[in-house]
Amino acid sequence: xxxxxxxxxxxxxxxxxxxxxxxxxxxxxxxxxxxxxxxxxxxxxxxxxxxxxxxxxxxxxxxxxxxxxxxxxxxxxxxxxxxxxxxxxxxxxxxxxxxxxxxxxxxxxxxxxxxxxxxxxxxxxxxxxxxxxxxxxxxxxxxxxxxxxxxxxxxxxxxxxxxxxxxxxxxxxxxxxxxxxxxxxxxxxxxxxxxxxxxxxxxxxxxxxxxxxxxxxxxxxxxxxxxxxxxxxxxxxxxxxxxxxxxxxxxxxxxxxxxxxxxxxxxxxxxxxxxxxxxxxxxxxxxxxxxxxxxxxxxxxxxxxxxxxxxxxxxxxxxxxxxxxxxxxxxxxxxxxxxxxxxxxxxxxxxxxxxxxxxxxxxxxxxxxxxxxxxxxxxxxxxxxxxxxxxxxxxxxxxxxxxxxxxxxxxxxxxxxxxxxxxxxxxxxxxxxxxxxxxxxxxxxxxxxxxxxxxxxxxxxxxxxxxxxxxxxxxxxxxxxxxxxxxxxxxxxxxxxxxxxxxxxxxxxxxxxxxxxxxxxxxxxxxxxxxxxxxxxxxxxxxxxxxxxxxxxxxxxxxxxxxxxxxxxxxxxxxxxxxxxxxxxxxxxxxxxxxxxxxxxxxxxxxxxxxxxxxxxxxxxxxxxxxxxxxxxxxxxxxxxxxxxx
Length: 646
What we know:
- The protein has 646 residues and is α/β, with parallel strands linked by helices.
- It has three domains: 10-201, Rossmann fold; 300-441, Transcription Regulator spoIIAA (2-Layer Sandwich); 446-452 and 478-600, no CATH class.
- Helix 2 (38-48) packs across helix 7 and helix 22 crosses helix 23 (571-580).
- The longest helix is centred in the last third of the chain and has 28 residues, at 618-645.
C-alpha cells in the first residue's frame, strides 16, 4: 500500500497503476487527510479493506466535466457536503453570507454550492445516469428524513428524494460503508441494499418491511406542525442502536423512505483501528500555494478521544448524528498519536485539546448502555443526574497524566468543553483540581448557555444553581492552588422559551458578574434538533406543550443586545427591550441599572447636566455651573496625571 495522498487526478491514478477507482469520494471540503475530516476516515477505511478510492474535492458544480476528472467508478460515488452542513458553512444565523470558509484553501468563500450534497448528486446524475450514489456526512445524516430547513423556512423532503441518491449512510458511517462496499462488490444491485443498519433507502413497496413504525406522511406534517413535532420525537427516541426501530416516512405516489436502525457503536479496538489508519495528517500539498486550509490549525495538534454525548442538549444534533453512547479510544492509541504530533516540525510543545463532543466523557453513562442501549424516555444528566450515572473521571485523569509526561510535551489543554454538572456529580472530586492545576490556559470555557431555569429546561441544561455551584468550586479551587484563572461562559440568546423578561434576567446576571461577552451566539435552528423542532412548530416535542418562540428578527436583536448592554451601539435596542419588558427600573443612574436615560428625556443626560430636576430653577443653573467647574478640574487633573506618567 502506497503511503501517500489518495488520487485526485488521472496522473495520481497512473502513478498507482490504477485504470479505474472502485469508489470516488466527492466532498465539499478541501482534501485534508486527517482523522478530524470525515472524508479522510471513510476513504482510508475503504482503502484498508482493499478498495481503490479517489477524491474529487470541491468540484465546480456548474461544470459537468469537473465530476468526470477520475472517470466513472467501478462501484459507486460517495458524496458529502463536508464537515459542516453547507448552509451553516455559508450563512450566519441572520442569514448573512459569511466571508470565509475555513475548510477551503486560503479560506475562500464560495467554492461549494448551497445544499452541496443535493447539487453534487444531481451533477453526478447528469454525467453518470446509473452509477450508484451513496451520501453521508453531517448534511445528509441530519436531513435523512423530512426536516425543517431554516434557510428556506419550510419543511423539506428527505434529502434522499431531492438529491436523487440511492442510499444514505447516516451517523459516523464506518460500519455501514464497509458493508455497503462489500455488498456492491459481491454484485448486489444498489436498489437491493435495504438490509444494512445505519442506512436509509427509498422504496415503492413495503411488502418486505414487516417490522417498521410508520411515521406521519410528509403531506400530513406539512399541513400540521404538530404532526411534524410528533414525528420528530419518534425519530429522536429511535437513535439508539440497541432499541431503535425501523422507521418509514410515506410520500406521494407509493414512495416510502425507510430508515434502518442505527449501526452499532464501535468498540474501543475498532476506534483504535480507525485512528491508526495511514493518514498523511495534513491538507493536500497542492493547496500550499493557495495559503493552505485554515481548519487544520485548530485540529493539527489536538486529539479526538471519544464520540457521542449523553448530555443531549436540545440545540445540539449530536444525539441524532453520533448517538448518546460514548465510544472511546484506548490510552495506547492516543499516546501513539500524541507521539506523532511531537515529531511534527512545527510542534511547540502544546497539545491543544484532548476530547470530543464533551471532553470529560470517557465511557458510557451506565453499565447497561452497551447491551441494552440508552433509555428512550429519560436523560442521563437532565433535569438532574440519573441515579445510575457513573460519574467518574479516573480514566480521563490517568490519560491526561500520561500525555503530559511525554517527552517534548510542555502542556496539555482541554478546549473542547467539559460538562460542569458531570464534574460536580463525580463523588471523587479529583478532576477539578487536576483540571485547574494542569489543563487550563488562564481561561476555562464552559457552556451554561443561560441563567433562566425556564429557558434552561427547554435547552436540556441543568438549573442555574448548578452552574453557580461550579463557579464557586472553580474559584475556590484556583484560590487554594494560588492561581488566577477565569471562567468564560458561553451564552445563547433567543432560544425557544426565552422572552424579553428572561433575556433581561440574563443581562442582570452579567451585570452582577461584571462581565460582558465579546461574542453572543443567537440560537441557530439547524436541521434535526429538538430546539429546531420547537422553533418551527411552537411545541416542545417531548411534552407537546406550547413554547414561546422568538422568531421576529427585531426581538432577536433586542435579546442579543441585552447580553451586550454595555456596548453603546446597542443602546436603542436595550432601551426598547427594557420598556417592552416593563423594566424601566433598569434605566437610570443607580449601580443596578443597565443603561442611563437618553439625553433629552426626563431625567436624561442633558437634564442632569443642566440640573433640570423637578422643581429646579436658579438652583439648577447654579448646579450646572458647579458641575462644569468640577468636570473641568477633573479633566485638568487627568491630563497632568497622564503627562506625569509619560
